[in-house]
Amino acid sequence: IETANDEQVFAFFNEYHHADIADILEELSLEQATYVIKLLDSEKTSDVLIELDEDDRERILKNLSAKEIAEEIEELDTDDAADMIAELPEERQENVIAQIEDEEHAAEIKELLAYDEDTAGGLMAKELVKVNENWTVTQCVKEMREQAAEVTRVHSIYVVDDNNILKGRLSLKDLLVAPARGKIKDIYIPKVDYVYVDEDDEEVAKVMQKYDLEAIPVVDQEKHLLGRITIDDIVDVIKIEAEKDYQLAAGITQEVEADDSIFELTKARLPWLVLGLFGGLGSVFIMGGYEEALSTYKELFFFTPLIAAMAGNVGVQSSAIIVQGLANDVVKGSLLQRLLKEVGLSLINGIALGGLVIIFGYIMQYPASFTFTIAISMLCVIIIAALVGTFVPIILDKRGIDPAIATGPFITTSNDIFGIFLFFYIAKLMLGF
Amino acid sequence: IETANDEQVFAFFNEYHHADIADILEELSLEQATYVIKLLDSEKTSDVLIELDEDDRERILKNLSAKEIAEEIEELDTDDAADMIAELPEERQENVIAQIEDEEHAAEIKELLAYDEDTAGGLMAKELVKVNENWTVTQCVKEMREQAAEVTRVHSIYVVDDNNILKGRLSLKDLLVAPARGKIKDIYIPKVDYVYVDEDDEEVAKVMQKYDLEAIPVVDQEKHLLGRITIDDIVDVIKIEAEKDYQLAAGITQEVEADDSIFELTKARLPWLVLGLFGGLGSVFIMGGYEEALSTYKELFFFTPLIAAMAGNVGVQSSAIIVQGLANDVVKGSLLQRLLKEVGLSLINGIALGGLVIIFGYIMQYPASFTFTIAISMLCVIIIAALVGTFVPIILDKRGIDPAIATGPFITTSNDIFGIFLFFYIAKLMLGF
Predict the structure, then answer these.
(1) Among A128, A317, A378, which would you mutate to test the B interface (most chain B Cβ atoms within 10 Å of its Cβ)?
(2) ipTM > 0.90?
(3) To the nearest whole angstrom, how far is the Cα of B247 from the nearest Cα of chain A?
(4) Which of A241, B227, B261, B288 is the most buried (most CB within 10 A)?
């Protein structure tokens, strides 16, 4: 393909949807991708750039001049434009903004850049359709035609007063069935959900999901209409949040993908492994302290991986359920109720598993005292592990720390050490070595 | 509140959004909740019922007659109606459908019930706005007003021919700026994304996300327009999928929540714990086989939890990255490349961690041969665990099995046993006991 002339390449790519072009570009070399981006119209390439992986986009933008980037930015909605500019080095940001011809667009992007990316302000776009409550329906339709030409998708029509204060909304459906005469004031719906500009993006996602909204207006503390957030941005928030939690649970510290470089993957994985190593070295010490049991109860030491695995598995299960419950706001009831429930649950699980251990001990012809020691100490380890797995996330959440960090290696490692310690401690008490 | 008279309760609840009423009902007793549902208008309660937790809804519906349920169903869109009916016992389903007065609605619901719930057909609703390509714009607007009255949200207007075959779409924005005269044939957009009715729901989610669609038409093999899927249904698919993967990774076998009963939680958690127990008992056997090393190298046994933890952690990290990559279709390149990459990655991690072990051994004044045995066998365990974690999901995926089951306890347990076996095997080779 790349040996063909410009026209052929242009014709080839122009046929495709921008999301597909982005897929193709990710397979090409940097030079080839830059060449294609420069060749196509910026109306198309701006969308392609937004679809690209962050790393790929960064590399391509490095090869474009501030002027060329500004041309791409002109074609984008303000929210995407602000996201793209935010990724540039600071000095380039200013150069690019200075090159944007549409001054209003530039000013809006500058405004959006000021918001934290994890807030409603960081998600919102300035493009929206708004009408004044004092307009007539006819006037409104005329104005809307003009506004709609600039907005990719019309979701709701927001109604404001003369001071740009949000008063309500007009749905497109209402407009379709509305009589041509009459004032907006008389037909708009005054009940409208909105979010404040400094609201956390996960909160925005929850509100939009709960009320099944496809777009939500964003206001400041005085209810001035600032922008709107659409459901497609929320889909991204939900996906990224889910992936982050999943990766935390798997012991990966940062957003990585299978195709990232070995160096980036190591940076994301090694820290938790080092934590696990220190945990393991801790259990070396603990077992060393019970060395004297080796002569009479050497089998105790054969059971340590089992105890560690149980403590780890139970802890991860408990923490995963709680973390998910906290995220979905379904954790109700008092701490005491939860404590009793976890103890009850681990008693049932522990007794079932202890029963299996007793059967195993019988088959292996271990002394009964030894088998019961294993079963009872395992039961205790399971109860404690479940409590740690449940309450560490709750405590973190109460202190405003993301409880998801308490899933995965953190819980596994601490439960491993703690479980092995408890196991030997109870065994010593029961067997008396 | 519940001691008040009907009118007060009615007035109280009528003020609220249906999602908020659902939240309140979940806090009430079954009798109270049923009472409120019966009291309010079915226009409102049908939405409330859909928002409720599946278990709560089931309990309330049990207290309603087929006639009462049918009234709720009449108010719902076909997709929600079909979902709600599908949850009823089979014989009640037929009774309820027979009681629906609107025959067209009943027929549509029956049609939807026939589709598998994990397919496009299971997600779609029959409510949509469609126009014939042979109509004029004026005729079209008139027809649309009627259709729009039945559709909660108008996303796109689909264009069909006389045989109901999907030809393209008209965006609402186009309609706003279109001239009043002229035929639909001349102004519709022939490029339209669509999905087949038997497409998997996760695939539908991917297509809608990739092309940033808020609604997508569903067609049969001959491209007859059957229904449409909206983005809010896709948000649910994405969330449920993410939660399922997360729970699998945490060793929980089925969709449970923190507030489910102890019995349900046990059913979800115990199976993986039993698997972990058998794994642990397996390592008891393995270590028993190397009992003779106890006299000279007792510290080897102190290191088993460390080895098991490393094997487990590395395996989970590798599998989580691959499972996520497979889900997002970003796993590219040949199997050999991936093999080399994983080996390279685990070499780096393993050497770093081995270095720490050597420092530890030096501090503890272990013999150098012993320390190096630990470090080298740990390195081997890490490499093998990473390969198992990477390739088990890939193989499962190739065979059409959900690779997510290979995260969590499955990988941890098998890597535990395998790691401990490898550790002792290499130690025996190197130390010669």
Answers:
(1) A317
(2) no
(3) 7
(4) B227
Tokens of B242: 């993410």
B184 inside 8 A of chain A by CB: no
Phi-psi region of B175 (alpha: psi -120 to 50; beta: other; left: phi over 0): alpha
pLDDT at A152: 64
Q: What's the gap in Å between the CA of A303 and the closest CA on chain B? A: 6
d(CA A73, CA A67) in angstroms, rounded, equals 10
Residues 244-273 of A with CB under 8 A from B: 245-247, 249-252, 256-259, 262, 265-266, 269-270, 272-273
The neighbour count for residue A99, using CB atoms within 10 Å, is 17
Q: Taking the CA atoms of chain B, what radius of gyration do you get in angstroms?
A: 30
- The full DSSP string for B87-125 is TS-HHHHHHHHHH-S-HHHHHHHHHHHTS-TTBHHHH-B
**B117-136: per-residue pLDDT in tens?**
889 999 999 888 888 988 88
Q: Which regions in chain B score pLDDT beneath 70?
A: 1-4, 149-154, 172-173, 176-177, 254, 330, 332
Q: What is the 3-state secondary structure (H, E, C) of A163-193?
A: CCEEEEEEEHHHHHHCCCCCEHHHHCECCCC
First to last CA, chain B: 77
Kindly state the DSSP code that residue B230 receives in the 8-state scheme.
Answer: E
Exposed/middle/buried for residue A41 (C-beta within 10 Å: 0-12, 13-18, 19+)? exposed
| Interface residue A180 vs chain B (CB under 8 A) | no
Average pLDDT over residues A384-389: 91
* Count of beta carbons in the 10 Å neighbourhood of residue A252: 25
Shortest CA gap B91–chain A (Å): 32
In chain A, the percentage of residues whose pLDDT exceeds 70 is 95
Statement: residue A307 has pLDDT above 80: yes
Give the three-state DSSP class for A44: helix
Residue numbers of B between 301 and 330 with CB closer than 8 Å to A: 301-310, 312-314, 316-317, 319-322, 324-325, 328, 330
Which residues pair with residue A228 across a beta bridge? Answer: A125, A217
**pLDDT for the residue numbered A227:** 93
In angstroms, the CA A137 to CA A159 distance is 12
pLDDT of residue B153: 67
Helix (H) / strand (E) containing A29: none
Task: Find the largest Cα–Cα distance for chain A.
Answer: 97
Q: In the sheet that B156-160 helps form, which strands lie side by side, from edge to edge? A: B129-132, B156-160, B166-171
Q: Which residues contact B301 (CB under 8 A, 6 or more apart)?
A: A287, A301, A302, A304, B287, B293, B294
Instruction: List, in order of start, the domains of chain B with CATH numbers.
Output: 6-118 (1.25.60.10), 129-230 (3.10.580.10), 262-431 (1.10.357.20)
Q: Do residues B415 and B311 make contact, with C-beta atoms less than 8 angstroms apart?
A: yes
What is the model's pLDDT at position A382? 93
Reported as a single tens digit per residue, the pLDDT across A278-292 is 999 999 989 988 888
Q: Give the Cα separation of A392 and A396 in Å (integer).
A: 6
Per residue in B282-305, pLDDT tens? 999 899 888 888 888 888 899 999
Task: Give the tokens for residue A2.
Answer: 């790349």
Enumerate the residues of chain A whose CB falls inside 8 A of the CB of residue B264. Answer: none
Question: Which residues 131-150 of B are in CB contact (within 8 Å) with A?
Answer: 141, 144-145, 148-149
